[in-house]
Structure formats: C-alpha cells, structure tokens
Design goal:
By secondary structure, the chain is of the alpha+beta class. The protein contains two helices and two strands; from the N terminus they run H-E-E-H.
Length: 74
C-alpha cells in the first residue's frame, strides 16, 4: 500500500472515532496547599469537546487521500 492510502485510512478511522465520541474527559489532580508535611490536593474533572465538524472534515479528507492514493497507483 502507498503511504498516502495508509494515511487516508487512518484519517478516516480518526474521523469516525471523533464522530462517535462527544468529548474527552479526564481528571486533573491539583495541589492546593503544600506547607511542609501538610499537603492538600483536589481532583478536578475536565472535559474537552470534540466538534462534529472536525470528525466530518477528517473523514472527507481521508476519503480524498484514499482516492488520490488509489489513483496514483494506476
């Protein structure tokens, strides 16, 4: 397979995953107080929204690269 075709397939897979996942959530641990032996931490829940348009653009771009890779093969 050509590298262009492989990159197109990967981009399509990433785009489909982006369409399936609404947002990416993770927990961040912050140190609030650090005074000698006393250490106070807090867990903060964060989420990063994944825009739908980014998934659509990735799928379309991947399909274009897949088409270009197959066309360059002939």
């Amino acid at each position: 397979m050509k590298p262009l075709t492989i990159f197109g397939v990967l981009l399509i897979a990433i785009g489909v995953a982006g369409l399936a996942i609404d947002n990416i959530s993770f927990t961040e641990r912050k140190t609030i107080v650090d005074a000698g032996p006393l250490k106070v931490t807090a867990d903060e829940q964060r989420s990063i929204p994944v825009p739908t348009i980014a998934g659509v653009i990735a799928v379309v771009a991947g399909a274009g690269l897949l088409f270009m890779g197959r066309r360059a093969q002939n």
